[in-house]
Structures are given as structure tokens and as C-alpha cells.
Amino acid sequence: xxxxxxxxxxxxxxxxxxxxxxxxxxxxxxxxxxxxxxxxxxxxxxxxxxxxxxxxxxxxxxxxxxxxxxxxxxxxxxxxxxxxxxxxxxxxxxxxxxxxxxxxxxxxxxxxxxxxxxxxxxxxxxxxxxxxxxxxxxxxxxxxxxxxxxxxxxxxxxxxxxxxxxxxxxxxxxxxxxxxxxxxxxxxxxxxxxxxxxxxxxxxxxxxxxxxxxxxxxxxxxxxxxxxxxxxxxxxxxxxxxxxxxxxxxxx
Length: 252
Description:
By secondary structure, this protein is α+β, with helices and mostly antiparallel strands. The chain has helices at 29-32, 71-77, 81-96, 101-109, 112-116, 122-130, 136-148, 162-168, 176-186, 191-200, 217-223, 239-246; strands at residues 3-5, 13-18, 21-26, 52-54. α1 (29-32) links the parallel β3 (21-26) and β4.
């Protein structure tokens, strides 16, 4: 199969040439808000004709997922490589420091939403994505690291990340909902589980260092319940989120 992307935006969509036919790819609404074509991009449907169809199903630019995809398939074929490297290094750091396997597993998936879905509120998205398949403490820790990471805890040697000063500016103050979430997390019995994600988070990770995902196969096997039908096809409350990564440009 041959593909060619013109990557030319016309009112929030572009053409992808596939074996002599045109697939029309819509930019997701989350990334067109504020753009002049946010309200008009669906005019793409008016351009359809024989040999010119909306993108549905397998995207030829992506590796076709297995019929019953498992967590490692998403690491290998869907998550952004910098995010994968970051997750693997964070999990390896937790493992080397003697953290329990639950914490290692939480570190392995704490930023999964950044790599495969959305960066904003990624702790909440990531926790929801994994919730049916992990121990409650793991998903709780992933959710709460969203807020906990903005607040220092000198008792475990965690300072406000210097990277955040660079990213957001020296005067950045987390919004009220994050401040309230931190207060609630700090009073929770699993607070230290969320804190250990931040302690083992690598805010300036080394892109030249690689960790093999296979190092965590056994931990995944013990702490991530893989559905027999495959992620995205088990009728769980979050199956649609996994399918969104399988077919990220489905028009409808």
C-alpha cells in the first residue's frame, strides 16, 4: 500500500492519497479550537465524490494493530516515542530504587495519556484509561500525580521541578481545582503512592538512554489485567478510549 500526504490544510482538513484514492482527514476539534476553520471544517463532507472518501478504519500511516491488542501493542505502535522513553525511564528508576511493583506499574503508565491521547489533565485521562485493568491504588496514584507534582515535599526530597519554571514561567500558579485536588490527595491514605510517581518522574529525562519495555513484561502481567477480547473491544466503560488510539482519525 502506498500513501502520500499532501498535509495541506483546507478549512481544518487535509488529503491523504492512498493507492490512487483520496482519504480526507479531519483535524480533531480539540486542536482546532481558536482557529478560524473550527466551525467550518466539516465542509469537508461536501467535497466527497467517487475516489474521495472520509478516513475511516485503519490509517495506512500507522502500523495495523493486532486483532486483540494488548498494552504492549499500544507502547510499540501508538504512543509517541519520547513519551515511551520517559515512561520506561521513570519505571526503571522506581524499580532500581526498590519501589513496590504497584509503584513501578504506576510509573510505567502515569503519562500514557500524553503519549496517546491529550496532554491537558493527562493524569485524569490516564487514570480513567487504565482504571478497569489495574488495582485501584494504581489508578488513584496516576490520577493524583496530576496535582501532586506541582507541590514540593521535602520529606522525600521532592522539590518543585525546575523544568516547570522553564515551561510555565516563574509566576505560574496551579488553578484552584489542582490546589484542592492536592489538599485532598495529601490527606489520603495513598498519598505517598502518588508522591512516589513524582519522585521517580524524570522531568529532564535523557533522550539518548533507552530502556527495553520487555524489562517490565512480568510486572505488567501481574498488575495489568489484559481483557481476552483485547483493549478496546471488551465493552468496558473506557473501551472507546483505546479504540480512539487504534483509529485516531475516524471521521465519525
